[in-house]
Give the backbone structure.
Amino acid sequence: MEELITFDKVCLTYHTKESETPVLADMSFSVGRGELMGLVGPSGCGKTTVLSLISGIIRPTSGKVLTGGMAPEKCDISGYMLQKDELLPWRTNMANILLGAELKKRDKAAARQKALELLEKYDLKGVEKHYPDQLSGGMRQRVALIRTLVLAPQIILLDEPFSALDFQTRLQVVNDVYTMLKTEKMTAVFVTHDINEAISMCDRVAVLSSKPCHIKEIVDISVFKGIPPAERRISGEFVRLYDKILTSMQSRTEQTWNTQKNTPATSNGSAGKNLQ
């Protein structure tokens, strides 16, 4: 499988005049084209920071991040789907969908045609003249994803996009978004606190440690390849994978961080390795 995202021994440290704070520690992983990769871990561990590195918003202190074989800030191939849909209430749904195309100065007629095709394809035909407050939470999230897809990104970055929805709506929207991503053959990195959602959506799930964040384990979910989220949840294999990820999240590691040398180390001083 072609690698579309590559992290090679990535470290990130925030510096101030008084101190330095290590955030990511020797992180290495890859995401193949068309793959959905989940990131789970404790609050504040650096999951969103990983997305920011993929998008090129920030750069690593050391190591390499590549998207499509290039530095992210040089190729602009990522699109975001955030916790809140961030639809502007004074713009129609179509105007919201076309906002990114306007800001990037894309061909407006082509973007509008693409938007209409996607709205019809995903059962939203007719909402383009309405406003966001006339839509349900699930419909708003689908409109937000279409806004991103209109820009034809190669990578979709999902930062807890379902956390603002009630439980029943979340179940439906997870199915909808999964279907859209797979139908469009998108590569996606999905940050979530919910292990159930990660197993429901993803092909693999990376379990992250607390800061300084490193990968404790990458769990293969390919047993569910091609199976939609609702069907995954009723499988006995779902419970086994849930327990495996939860156990990994709760396990303690011996890895510590040497802030002066900027390198991870185990308790005996030797270099630590990611568990993959």
